[in-house]
Every structure is written in C-alpha cells, then in structure tokens.
Design a protein that fits this description.
three-stranded antiparallel beta sheet, 30% helix, 8 helices, Nucleotidyltransferase, domain 5
Length: 264
C-alpha cells in the first residue's frame, strides 16, 4: 500500500497533510487529494423549476457555480437540452478538461443503468438514457442518481450527517419526496422507489389527497395564499415561502399539521 501511495504522491494526486499521534502504536500519516491541474468535474442538479451546475477540481474544491431557470412547461427533450446547455455554459468558463459529470435528477432513477425512469415534474419523462446522452455529448464519464439521494449522500460524507447513521432528508420542492439513510447506508428500495412519498394519501378535512398535492412547494404556497391551481407561481418561490413561514394562520396550521412527525 505504501508503494502505491508513494506513486500517487509522486504523480501529484495525493499529498501528506500531517501526522496523527495516538496513545499507542506508530503515528498515522494523513493523506489529502491534490488539486492537480489535469481537469475538473461537473455536479448537476435539476428540478422542474431550475438547474444548478457546480465545478470542482480533483480535490473537491469549488471553482465556479451557476443557476439557470428551467422553462415551463418542458418536455423530455427540452429538459435534456437545457441541462446540456447549462453544462456547456460551465465548460465555457473553465480552461481545463471536463473529466466527469455527476447528475442529481428528480423522480425514479436507476444509477446502475444510468436511466431516468420517471418523474412527475415533466410530462413525458420516462425511461430517459440520461447518463448515455450526457456522456456522449461531453465525451466524459457520467453518473446519475435521484437528486434527494445525492443530497443525503452529501450530508453523510461532508455535512450534518457525518456523525449520524440514521436520518431522513425531506424534499418539499416541485414534488414531495424524501431520502433515507439507515445504518449509514443509503436506502434505495427493491424497485428504486424508497422515499418517493408523493403519491401517499394523506387525510384531510375533505377526504384524502396525494402528498404531492398537499406538501410540494407550489401546493404549500397556494394553500398559504389561498391561490388556485390556475394561479401563476412567483418567480422566486423560495423567497415567497420564506416570507410566509412565520405568518401563522388557519392555512399555516393546516399545512404544518400534515407534515410527517407533526402532531397533526
């Protein structure tokens, strides 16, 4: 192992970052990834309303980021074109080679086959070979996963979940879903649908409704403002919801009462 590490250090991929001395035994040498000037990686995450792209170097350092609006309505081909254009815009900012792409896509995703299976966010989003399309377009390796599961992995590896073996990430965005980490492992489900709670029926005063129609960000905004489905959503839905977050009202009580884990 030491020989391989020495080779990686000599090639500029790793560096020694200091010794850790324990109470007993030999001290351990910490290793860190080097920035390395051979290229960069693109991280992409998209929903029904926007696309985010971030560029990182080999050591995971953030180099640049951009956000673009997703046109609405958008069919599958339009979504793919918008995602490709966002990545291309980032390529235009960088001077080194694009080495790989990681994509967080909404809905059911098969990371083993690289297929985006289904998402209610787009009308004809079914069995899309997204991994192959992006790999071919940019001549770079691409991996895909459900966007909320990517967030859960990021929390587990780098964020608030580093010291937690069991946690859930809720996603009340353009749809409603969650990602689940149990025993330190990401739960996918037998049919890749673990956490896809949008179609779960929730009891209301008027009967039962799907979680998507009650707890997604657009649904919450409409309920809090008394708007109908025909009402256009605000340009910045996040900011508008933040303004309403602490304005308690009968609608606010009803919405929060439906959230998982609430007394309602």
């Amino acid at each position: 192992m030491g020989l391989y590490v020495d080779q990686l250090i000599a090639a500029g991929w790793l560096r020694e970052s200091g010794l850790i001395r324990g109470k007993t035994g030999r001290p351990k040498m910490n290793l860190e990834l080097e920035k390395n000037g051979t290229g960069w990686f693109a991280g992409v995450e998209f929903t029904a309303s926007r696309i985010q792209v971030i560029a990182v170097d080999f050591a995971g350092n953030r180099l640049s980021a951009l956000t673009k609006a997703m046109p609405s309505p958008a069919d599958a081909e339009a979504v793919i074109r918008q995602v490709q254009q966002a990545i291309q815009d980032m390529v235009g900012r960088m001077t080194e080679k694009l080495l790989g792409i990681g994509v967080g896509a909404p809905g059911l995703v098969n990371p083993d086959t690289g297929m985006a299976i289904y998402s209610m966010a787009f009308p004809d989003w079914a069995d899309i070979p997204l991994q192959a399309r992006l790999s071919q377009a940019f001549a770079a390796r691409c991996t895909i996963q459900n966007n909320l599961r990517v967030i859960a992995l990021a929390e587990r590896w780098f964020g608030e979940g580093r010291d937690e073996d069991d946690f859930v990430v809720l996603g009340p965005r353009s749809g409603f879903a969650m990602s689940i980490v149990k025993g330190g492992e990401l739960i996918r489900g037998a049919h890749l649908g673990a956490g896809e709670a949008g179609f779960w029926p929730l009891a209301t005063a008027d009967g039962e409704e799907a979680a998507h129609d009650l707890l997604s960000a657009p649904a919450v905004w409409r309920r809090l403002t008394g708007s109908t489905r025909e009402t256009s959503l605000p340009t910045n839905l996040h900011d508008e919801l933040a303004k309403l977050a602490c304005e308690q009202s009968p609608a606010w009580e009803e919405v929060t009462g439906l959230l998982p884990g609430s007394s309602g």
